[in-house]
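User: I'm new to structure prediction. If I give you an amino acid sequence, what do you actually give back? Let's try with this one:
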Amino acid sequence: MQENERKEQQAQDISEEMISQENISQEIGEKEPAEDTQEQGLLNITFIPKYMDIFDGLCATDQADGTGKRARMLFVVLVLLMCVQLVGFFSTQNGFMFVFALLLGGVALFIKKKSQRFNRDIAIAFENEGEQHLVFEENSFHLNEKQVSYDEVVHLYELKKVFSIIYQGNHVYILPKAVMEPQQTEQFVALMKEKVSAVYEQRSK
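Assistant: Good question. You get back a string of structure tokens that encode the predicted 3D arrangement of the chain. For your 205 residues, that looks like this:
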């Protein structure tokens, strides 16, 4: 239940932020505040999010922090049972074993899709939000129009393909490594290790 609430809140926050940005653009022009802020930042990153990058990053984050562990274990068990039934079917040509294997496979697929539903919704909303502007300053950083203090970062995972920033309790921001130049990546890692070293965790291997 706590996992679902976290992801529902994440999707709602992204939608609210999209509406907020549209209102700001209508009132004061196309993202002038963001551009002004970027000039003052220690590190500025701009990128256009892609669904698969965000979705894969969210799933990797779940695996890193143990979210949905029970569902993943159940999926593995069901797949193994399905394989056992299939082996038995090919050995005995027992039709019941084949039907049971299909049933196990269907249940496993349903569990996997259900456990990833919120990640899909968040990734879609993230992609629809459009161009992202990240500005890192001395005492805080900006995720588009949202300002976050470094003290509010709960955990920062360096994963194989993304950086996953968990902040303000249960909010997650996915920063794909592919959108940064090598120099930006080095600057980001150095800055994060300086500002949030206590919650920085490398799991990129």
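You can read the tokens as a compact description of the fold. Here is one thing that stands out. Helices lie at 2-28, 32-38, 51-65, 69-92, 95-115, 117-129, 182-195.
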